[in-house]
Amino acid sequence: MTRSRSLVLFLIVGSAMILSPGCRRWSVHRNERLMQQKVAEAEKAIRAASADSVSAAQAKDLDKTVSYYAPNAIMFGVGAPVQGIEGIRKVWQQLLATPNLQMHLTTLSVEVSRSGDLGWEYGSFQGTSTDKNGKTVTQTGKYVVIWKLQSDGSWKIEADLSNPQ
């Protein structure tokens, strides 16, 4: 009787040892697939938030445009950096008041961290407006926007950097 128990125990332990690397591999592949899915969903959400924020700016909707920024976000552009939602609101208020302002953004890439909670977008922009003499002015440049997943599931801009050419 003890011999058959020993044999059964040996078979159970042996089977567990043989199967366990396969189980681990399956678990690793499953986790990798889940991570890739999370990153892909994050990229899609960032692209949607970016497009919505540009649409809000094109519609000159100040509140909606500013709503895409985190409370303590920082904005780098021409001049000194501006940090905090109120400072960013003032920058956008001034920008959206520009006569005949038209903005176009071309996103070249959106990347997401492996953890799926931080992303960055970069590309180029073009803006046209009318100066005080009625002449059309065009400005082009590059931009980088860093997005962070918020506790409510939304994506907010943590840093907005533009580099006019």
Please provide a written account of the structure.
With 165 residues, the chain is of the alpha+beta class. The chain has one domain: Nuclear Transport Factor 2, Chain: A (Roll), CATH 3.10.450.50. It has helices at 2-58, 62-66, 85-96, and strands at residues 69-76, 82-83, 102-112, 118-130, 136-149, 155-164. A hairpin with a 5-residue loop joins strand 5 and strand 6.
Give a short summary of the structure.
The protein is 45% helix and 35% strand.
Helices and strands in order, then pairings?
Layout: H1 2-58, H2 62-66, E1 69-76, E2 82-83, H3 85-96, E3 102-112, E4 118-130, E5 136-149, E6 155-164
Parallel strand pairs: 1-6
Antiparallel strand pairs: 1-2, 3-4, 4-5, 5-6
Shape: elongated
Helicity, in percent? Answer: 40-55%
Q: What distance separates the N and C termini?
A: 86 Å
The number of distinct β-strands equals 6
Outline the biggest β-sheet: 6 strands, mixed
Neighbour order of strands in the largest sheet: 2-1-6-5-4-3
Low-confidence stretches: none
The total tally of domains equals 1
Oligomeric grouping of the chains:
single chain
Strand content: 35-45%
Descriptors:
Nuclear Transport Factor 2, Chain: A; 165 residues; 6 strands
